[in-house]
Amino acid sequence: MTSTINPVEIVGLKQAAYVMECLTKGQNGDEITRMLGGDEQLVDMWVSFLKHNQWMTETMQGWSMTAKGVMWMKRVTPAQTV
Predict the structure, then answer these.
(1) Is residue 2 within 8 Å of 8, Cβ to Cβ?
(2) Domain 13-76 has CATH 1.10.10.10
(3) Which tens digit of pLDDT belongs to each residue from 44-63?
């Protein structure tokens, strides 16, 4: 998903899925913010959404998708492999 799209052009839950994928690949908030046109507030909002809705968890080892996150990733990016 991250290599074939322009992240600034995606909207809605697809943008949440993009942020989730970036986090699970080890990218930090600053890197994701740069990819989304410098909108730090947008990235913070999506990270909060992902945590609050239990799509992701953060541990000492980094971010990982929950089963619910994997289900939603498949739902909003059906052509992609998770």
Answers:
(1) no
(2) yes
(3) 999 999 999 999 999 899 99
